[in-house]
Amino acid sequence: MPFDVNNYLQDAATAGGALIGAVGQIEFGQSHLQYGENEMALAQFTAQQLQQNAKTTVGAGGINAWLQGQKTKEMVSDQRAAAAAGGGSASDPTMIQIMGRTAGRGALLASQDLFQAQNQARTMNLQAQGALYSGQLNLENSKTINQNSDMSAFASLLKPAATLYSNYGAGDPSKNQNNYTPGGALFGVGVDGQGINPFAPQAAPAVG
Length: 208
Known about the structure:
The chain is mainly α. It has a single domain, classed as Helix Hairpins. The protein has helices at residues 5-85, 93-169. Helix 1 packs antiparallel against helix 2 (93-169). The relative contact order is 0.16.
């Protein structure tokens, strides 16, 4: 069968369309991978901020507890001074009871400051772990999508590439539908061994 330009152009267009589609699939996978990497970077930044805030919160809680302790000491000292100024004694059972209640309340408030700070810090650390876990999931999912896109792109090229190779790039000339021996899809070697340009004007057959 002589070389059919229309068939060749149709096969080439099919291969070209497959190539464009494959490039699009690869770019799609790459964009998803970039998205996953960006999400992971954001998760790491968020986690670091939360962990730093947790440390700051615990430190602030400790300071508040210390300040509360100092305030309590001042209150007890003022009560003792007031008792002495009134002619009483710090060892008086009533004064001991009053100062004891003041000291106890101060200790309770200091403990509450510490507890609240530690509880807030614990919540922040859990949020940091959650952010990292979510970022890792996004990254792994993006990697999977990227790998699947690459595989799909490769698979989409197999059939049109095989068609071009079979029809225009290899095979037994006696079985090749375009009577081509190996030599490429566009400029091959004809059955007579001469170079061929399928798009060049062909010589008319000899007569007689």
